[in-house]
Amino acid sequence: MLKAVNRVLLGLLGLALFALGGGVLLGGLDLPRRWDFGLPGWWPFRGPHDVVLGTEGRTRWREEGWWWPTVIAVLAVLLALLLWWLLAQRRHRLGGVLVDSGEGTAARLDGRALEDVIEAEARDLDGVARAHARLTGRSTAPAARVRLLLEPYADPAGTLGRLSREALSHARDSAGLETLPSKVRLKEVRHHARRAD
User: Fold this and answer.
1) Domains in the chain, start-ordered, CATH in brackets?
2) Is the pTM of this model over 0.70?
3) Which band of pLDDT confidence, cut at 50, 70 and 90, is reported for residue 91?
4) What element of type H or E holds 153?
5) Structural contact between residues 97 and 139, judged by C-beta atoms closer than 8 angstroms
6) How far apart are CA 21 and CA 196, in angstroms?
7) For residue 106, pLDDT beyond 80
8) What does the pLDDT read at residue 92?
9) Using CB atoms within 10 A of its CB, is residue 180 exposed (0-12), middle (13-18) or buried (19+)?
10) For residues 112 and 118, what is the distance between their CA atoms, to the nearest angstrom?
């Protein structure tokens, strides 16, 4: 899904920049006058002496009390979205893991299948309410990111030890990997305090 979102966003951004650049180029080179064609009335760049944002456009709302907080809020939201997008690029899901078949050739193990196995084994651990696993990195050197949602009675240290010894160890061995670096995030299920009568 991230690839589709990237393509759509990059396509829209490219189209907007192309239109803006084309509009500035039309006005800057004075092409409407030279080639004798008209532009719509709302078109901002009509000739080489026009500016992108005139004095009236720059100063129209400057005296309004809501203007600067709105500008700052919009820029902060835009910055947060761009940072999220940048960080999302680094967390791509690994499509497959190359496994040595023992005959000098490599087989490809589906990354989602390995993630499903890790999740299933992690869910079977005592005290685990939910589990989510994701493989990242390269197909020759994968890494695992595991998130566990623990029940209130669970022992975090014991659960982490069993996850490492069982689920992650089995995944590493089944893929024929020497190492499987892992990051595990533990979170407890929210529960409401019981009312004593």
Assistant:
1) 2-61 (no CATH), 96-188 (3.30.70.1350)
2) no
3) low
4) none
5) yes
6) 69
7) no
8) 64
9) buried
10) 10
